[in-house]
Amino acid sequence: MGMQVWLLVQEGKGNYGDLDEPVRSALFAARDDLPKNQRIALVIDSPGGMAKAAYQIAKFLERYCGGFVAVVPRYAKSAATLLALGADSILLGDYAELGPLDVQLYDLERERYGSALDESQALERMHAFALQAFDETMILLSNRTRKKTDFLIPAALGFAVNLTHPLLENLDTVHYTQVSRVLKVAEEYATRLLSPRYADEAAVKIARHLVENYPEHDFVIDAEEAATFGLRTERPNESQAEILDLLVSQLAGLTAIGRVEEVHDEHG
After folding, report:
1. Which of 108, 232, 237, 266 has the fewest CB atoms within 10 Å of its CB?
2. What is the pTM of this model?
3. Can you name the residues that pair with 9 across neighbouring β-strands?
């Protein structure tokens, strides 16, 4: 590729298993090994981690090396997708995938991680349900009573309110606001990383789509899917594709962060 190649390969557990502050610190500490003002190719194979760390790594590589090419043989999910958005270009292997940016939060009651969208979209669905209940009630009353709209609106509103009020009573507004802010952080980071290469409106649209528009955190975003909402990716040439295919078989269970160096045996 005509540039240094660095690995960010993470298996999702143990030390340096995901994108977090120790990984950011380690890369920053290795800056003397990075080429100053020369782009690198960063091979990303990661389940994700912290949005803040991903953003900081992307900005560090932009400022120190002048940019980087994100090379994804297998997957760069969640915060790793955010990191890839900061690249000058995203090279996806034939079977590679990115992922949504809906932040994962730990639920103490359920003792598991869940999408922050679970709560924010719940309110949106209740809002849509209330409007639908109002519309259907208005149509029903109008057809059956033949009374004027002004007379029917209070009755239809009362029905919709009584139907949704018990659901809204269970909503923790403070927690909902906190969740909404967490999602907004991911969207803002993505927008800022995209802005140098996209028009402002396009950057916002792509960022918001990645945060809000997918039904689950593991949803597959391949090259074809990325193109549907305007995210530009590149396909490898023939020789690159062969190397990426070979890499895929070697990455499972591997954590490796650092520079790739060419090693010559005794025969050269």
Report:
1. 266
2. 0.77
3. 45, 256
